[in-house]
Amino acid sequence: MSLTAPPPSGPGDGPPGSPPGNSGAPPGSGGEGPGGPPEGVPGGAREALHDRIAADALTTRRDYLRIVTTVSGGLALGGIGVAAGILHRHNDVEGVPEPRKIADTLAPGESLAFTYPGDEDRAVAVRLADGTLVGYSAVCTHLACAVLFRADRGQEGELLCPCHEGVFNVRTGEVTAGPPPRPLPRVIVTEDLDGSIWALATTRSGESDKDAWCRQFAEIAPERALEIGCPGAVPPRDRV
């Protein structure tokens, strides 16, 4: 499934769906006075800036709620971009990877080797002929050899582990030949409206994208897990 993230809501280097100018610095840092804009700004301008910041934050929350409440049986189109902003702001939670830009573009039939979520975690992204983006761990589930995309094999290409001729379906990650005992874990990848490619999250072997989001939201934002219909999600007020 190809998912297109919404455009960033303002300038900055944050991932798709992150707040305007989100470079990782908290409000009040980077030249601002405590909890406010830079000193020397006229009073009226300071008040206007405060109002704009508050409005931007409210818009971000409303956009998120609008998206997650339209989910039925899976993530809404564009919801991943907003989810990226949520995960980016909670990347200090153990086990929750930070979204990462991995390419400026990726054309049909092309593949990209990258690392995610850690610098030593090998991964591969492929743009299929029909435009679908897929991403996987590039570590074979047999004996952890490197997995490569071979465009010259099969109808759509194949993911091949040359160590023991393990073969995985490029569209699903399922084992199609050889000794690997499990499918490749997925790396959830998406395309921003500017064409850039982002890695947003990881799944466990055999886990769906939605289940992966639910698992991560359960750790960082349980109320969001409830809103997108995650199985077993418990309202925060009902937690023991």
From TrEMBL:
Ranges of compositional bias, category Pro residues: 1-19
Stretches the record annotates as Disordered: 1-45
Role this protein plays: Iron-sulfur subunit of the cytochrome bc1 complex, an essential component of the respiratory electron transport chain required for ATP synthesis. The bc1 complex catalyzes the oxidation of menaquinol and the reduction of cytochrome c in the respiratory chain. The bc1 complex operates through a Q-cycle mechanism that couples electron transfer to generation of the proton gradient that drives ATP synthesis.
Keyword presence, Iron-sulfur: yes
Keywords: 2Fe-2S, Disulfide bond, Iron, Iron-sulfur, Metal-binding
UniProt-recorded Gene Ontology molecular function terms: 2 iron, 2 sulfur cluster binding; metal ion binding; monooxygenase activity; oxidoreductase activity, acting on paired donors, with incorporation or reduction of molecular oxygen
Record-linked Pfam families: Rieske
UniProt keyword Iron, yes or no: yes
Gene Ontology CC: membrane
Protein known as: Cytochrome bc1 complex Rieske iron-sulfur subunit
CDD domains referenced in this protein's UniProt entry, alphabetically: Rieske
Taxonomic source organism: Streptomyces tsukubensis (strain DSM 42081 / NBRC 108919 / NRRL 18488 / 9993)
Cofactor or coenzyme needed: [2Fe-2S] cluster
InterPro entries from the UniProt entry: Rieske_2Fe-2S, Rieske_2Fe-2S_sf, Rieske_Fe-S_prot, Rieske_Fe-S_prot_C
